[in-house]
């Protein structure tokens, strides 16, 4: 549908914080077209955000972002499209393997993963997982709310979500085996150096193999204490080797393993180590599962380089 000429490029390039989703099956958007939103999106704009006629907003449409302005505010809001927003830089691959906590914590973890740039989120049934997955509809609503908040135009891919069953840990650890992997630890020493830099000094007792830069560690190293689990043995690291700041050493693709509330079992940690995962310190305290998701994604730079 057409509704006159589009707005100036200054409007198209402007930043706005109000966002809505184009209805599924809508005609492809183009500058000058008018889009009618569905009841839910209309209610969000008019009742929740109190957008007024003429005010600018962003419209998400199948991964693209368009700038428009509200032109009608009845039961079905109507938005006139000014033009596309220039696409941003591609985000690095971040595959989160989420050991299922309870439903509320799962939704919180999904929110954090969406806002911090996870590209895939795999739901994993671990030994200490409890409860059940939220419904597909609830997961979609939570991701939509997160996308509205942060401006992300497309959601992470969900694997093991309803109507499918959560993956086993064995299947999850075999997913993208070529990628390096990390999991959170509360140990005082940081094995991150062995994941992203081969300059770490080998200790005298016992010797530890050097790992090539960005190579997936198939060691396996002896696991350290997980961020949400019980203490097990820790592989020695030379304390003179300074940990490398992940923000200064970009990793284009990475797997991030997070255990459920109660943590991974020692056997699960051994399996993760055998699959190439190494522990990295997230602080001195045991974290809740949603907090660990946010901490790992924040630490390992899910934003594009230079952002």
TrEMBL record:
In short, the EC number is: 2.1.1.193
**Record keyword S-adenosyl-L-methionine present:** yes
User: What top-level class of enzyme does the UniProt entry assign?
Assistant: transferase
Question: What domain of life?
Answer: Bacteria
Q: Which GO terms describe its biological process?
A: rRNA base methylation
Q: Which reaction does it catalyse?
A: uridine(1498) in 16S rRNA + S-adenosyl-L-methionine = N(3)-methyluridine(1498) in 16S rRNA + S-adenosyl-L-homocysteine + H(+)
Any single GO CC term annotated in Swiss-Prot or TrEMBL for this entry: cytoplasm
All residue ranges annotated as the Ribosomal RNA small subunit methyltransferase E methyltransferase domain in the record: 96-163, 250-299
Q: Which UniProt keywords apply?
A: Cytoplasm, Methyltransferase, rRNA processing, S-adenosyl-L-methionine, Transferase
Every copy of the Ribosomal RNA small subunit methyltransferase E PUA-like domain together lies at: 37-76
Under Gene3D superfamilies, the record lists:
3.40.1280.10
Q: Where is this region: Disordered?
A: 197-248
Residue stretches of biased makeup (Low complexity): 233-248
Give the family, as the similarity comment puts it.
Answer: Belongs to the RNA methyltransferase RsmE family.
Physiological role: Specifically methylates the N3 position of the uracil ring of uridine 1498 (m3U1498) in 16S rRNA. Acts on the fully assembled 30S ribosomal subunit.
Q: What is this protein called?
A: 16S rRNA (uracil(1498)-N(3))-methyltransferase
Q: What is the organism lineage in this UniProt record?
A: Bacteria, Pseudomonadati, Myxococcota, Polyangia, Nannocystales
């Amino acid at each position: 549908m057409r509704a006159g000429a589009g707005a100036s490029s200054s409007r198209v390039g402007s930043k706005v914080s109000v966002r809505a989703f184009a209805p599924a099956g809508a005609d492809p958007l183009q500058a000058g077209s008018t889009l009618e939103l569905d009841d839910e999106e209309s209610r969000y704009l008019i009742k929740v955000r109190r957008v007024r006629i003429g005010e600018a907003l962003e419209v998400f449409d199948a991964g693209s972002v368009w700038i428009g302005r509200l032109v009608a505010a009845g039961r079905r809001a109507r938005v006139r499209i000014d033009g596309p927003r220039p696409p941003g830089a591609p985000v690095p691959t971040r595959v989160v393997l989420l050991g299922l906590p309870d439903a509320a914590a799962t939704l919180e973890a999904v929110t954090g993963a969406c806002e911090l740039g996870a590209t895939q989120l795999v739901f994993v049934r671990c030994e200490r997982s409890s409860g059940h997955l939220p419904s597909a509809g609830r997961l979609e609503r939570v991701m939509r709310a997160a996308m509205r908040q942060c401006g992300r135009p497309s959601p992470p891919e969900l694997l093991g979500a309803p109507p499918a069953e959560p993956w086993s840990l064995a299947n999850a650890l075999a997913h993208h085996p070529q990628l390096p992997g990390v999991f959170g630890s509360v140990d005082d020493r940081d094995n991150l150096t062995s994941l992203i830099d081969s300059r770490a000094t080998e200790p005298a007792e016992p010797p530890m193999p050097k790992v090539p830069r960005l190579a997936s560690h198939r060691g396996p190293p002896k696991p350290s204490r997980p961020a949400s689990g019980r203490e097990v043995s820790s592989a020695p690291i030379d304390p003179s080797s300074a940990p490398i700041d992940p923000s200064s050493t970009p990793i284009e693709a990475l797997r991030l393993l997070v255990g459920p509330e109660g943590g991974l079992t020692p056997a699960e940690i051994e399996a993760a180590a055998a699959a190439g995962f190494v522990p990295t310190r997230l602080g001195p305290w045991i974290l809740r599962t949603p907090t660990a998701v946010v901490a790992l994604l924040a630490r390992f730079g899910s934003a594009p380089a230079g952002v």
